[in-house]
Design goal:
This protein is mostly helical. It has a domain of about 50 residues. The protein contains 3 helices and no strands. α1 runs parallel beside α3 and α2 packs across α3. The C terminus is likely disordered.
Length: about 100
């Protein structure tokens, strides 16, 4: 054996990972919950239009994504339908 060389053995094996689902916390959890609520009340096949409205509200009101999702959720619950421009009388759509 050469005195200047070092032999290193590395054992490579499979690492065990947890099979538990990842739990979101804080804002991520709130966004996930708001998104799930929106999907439940969004008309079938119109998720893109609903999320376009979320983005429009967010930009128009200079608000957070979560707040915009909550506004659109409330609109959907009061009868607003994406793509038709139909709103419930008396529902205020701008700040």
């Amino acid at each position: 054996m050469d005195s200047g060389s070092v032999t290193v053995q590395v054992a490579v094996g499979s690492a065990r990972t947890s099979r538990l689902p990842t739990q979101l916390q804080g804002v991520s959890a709130q966004l996930a919950q708001a998104s799930a609520q929106l999907r439940k009340v969004a008309p079938a096949g119109q998720w893109d239009e609903v999320f376009d409205e979320v983005r429009r509200v967010q930009a128009e009101r200079s608000t957070s994504l979560l707040a915009a999702m909550q506004v659109v959720y409330a609109k959907l619950c009061t009868g607003w339908t994406p793509g038709t421009g139909r709103t419930v009388p008396g529902f205020r759509t701008s700040a």
